[in-house]
Amino acid sequence: MAKFLHTMIRVTDPAATIRFFELVGLKEVRRFDSEQGRFTLIFLAAPGQEGVAEVELTHNWDPEEYTGGRNFGHLAYRVDDIYETCQRLMDAGVTINRPPRDGHMAFVRSPDGISVELLQDGHLEPAEPWASMPNTGAW
Prior knowledge:
- The chain contains two helices and eight strands; from the N terminus they run βαββββαβββ.
- By secondary structure, it is α/β, with parallel strands linked by helices.
- It has one domain (6-60, 73-132): 2,3-Dihydroxybiphenyl 1,2-Dioxygenase, domain 1, CATH 3.10.180.10.
């Protein structure tokens, strides 16, 4: 038997990435610095999901360029109100790559190019400005 623990993504700016995931609704639950390994691990989870379904942010202290964030696929989170969540992200400067035109699904990208799918539990009635907003890039 196996139990899902976490998904790891490498990040270049931990503070920006934490701010992004806080807008989605996650919180930092623990952090580990390794002087010898020259890295920091930061674990984030939605409230009540600590230790169940976490995102591990790995920040290597020595500068490194990461490419191909799209190769990862995506993370997916259920949100209470997809329109409110997308508005909060947009107000913070995040581009909504695939708007929630159907009141159910949207895609955004983290500061490191990781695709994040947002899913409404059920469907909200289509609403503006979302219903007529075009896609703004690959999602």
